[in-house]
Write a structure and sequence with these properties.
Layout: H1 2-27, E1 37-43, E2 47-56, E3 64-74, E4 78-85, E5 92-94, E6 101-105, E7 119-125, E8 131-134, E9 139-141, E10 147-149, E11 154-155, E12 171-172, E13 177-180, E14 183-187, E15 190-193, E16 200-201, E17 207-208, E18 216-217, E19 226-230, E20 232-234, H2 240-275
């Protein structure tokens, strides 16, 4: 009986966390460059149950020997192991702003061991001087003339340097070269992650590596192709209709576990107030 409380309780916790994750996806359905999260729900290790039987050996002293009779396995509940971002390309949305740049996936290699497709990102520098990565190309110029993200991180070129511009009257080629008139000012730095599922998700659509090391340059990685579109932004890859359906499914699963928990509670109440009553 008490094991049942723990089993349905773990199911309710897992579905609650999944609902919170889906709600966050829905809230960012219109956030540029946002990557929807997916949950991984696993079960706890099952326990193998056996019953203890006592057999009397026909001896003079009536010696008794205990034996085990297999009952079977029993589940001990589930838990949400982790959440993983989905790195598929979002749809492009035209903004007509020169500081908005969409990074378009081309051919991206697939990891031979895991079958995971790589991903490309804009290369940024945060306040601490370390690198972080994003697909949100909504940039702006700070008061010093540096190209920055909406969160204030510096956009880096392919040499890892900050990009300084005179004004927002510039042009970006398909290869990511920033042109001021006929002069090439810098080339946008693009990084490639062979295992994007190993990246750590931060706020404002940013990602960092687990160990703090820098990702490899996409321009120097074999088999990686990409292009850029100025005046456009990559939208969120959240499927709103699918997310709503998944939220309803998670809610129904939570509700089912809740009803089972209430049934266990009523059974325990009856055991205490009726079965255990002494007449």
């Amino acid at each position: 009986m008490f094991r049942g409380f723990y089993t349905v309780g773990s199911g309710m916790i897992a579905q609650q966390r999944r609902t919170e994750m889906l709600a966050n996806n829905m809230a960012n359905a219109n956030t540029p460059g946002f990557k929807a999260e997916q949950s991984v729900i696993r079960s706890f290790p099952e326990m193998y149950m056996s019953s203890i039987n006592t057999a009397k050996i026909p001896t003079e002293n009536g010696f008794q020997m205990k034996g085990l009779s297999p009952v079977g396995s029993v589940s001990t509940g589930v838990y949400m192991q982790e959440t993983l971002p989905l790195f598929t390309q979002g749809q492009l949305r035209e903004t007509e702003l020169t500081t908005d740049i969409a990074l378009i996936d081309g051919r991206l290699p697939i990891d031979a061991e895991t079958g995971t497709q790589g991903a490309i990102f804009f290369r940024l520098e945060n306040e601490g001087g370390s690198e972080q990565y994003t697909k949100n190309g909504s940039f702006t110029l700070d008061p010093s003339g540096f190209l920055t993200s909406a969160g204030g991180a510096y956009v880096l070129d392919n040499n890892g340097q900050r990009i300084a511009l005179q004004n927002d009257d510039f042009r970006v080629t398909d290869e990511g070269i920033i042109m001021d008139g006929n002069t090439a000012v810098a080339t946008l730095g693009i990084s490639f992650a062979q295992r994007p599922d190993m990246l750590l998700k931060q706020g404002d659509g940013m990602f960092v590596t687990e160990g703090g090391e820098n990702l490899a340059a996409a321009n120097g990685t074999a088999g990686v192709t990409y292009s850029m579109q100025q005046g456009y932004l990559e939208g969120s890859n959240v499927d709103a209709a699918r997310t709503m359906t998944d939220m309803l499914t998670a809610y129904r699963a939570f509700e089912a576990n809740q009803k089972i928990l209430q049934a266990y509670d009523r059974s325990m109440e009856k055991a205490v107030t009726e079965v255990g009553r002494v007449n």
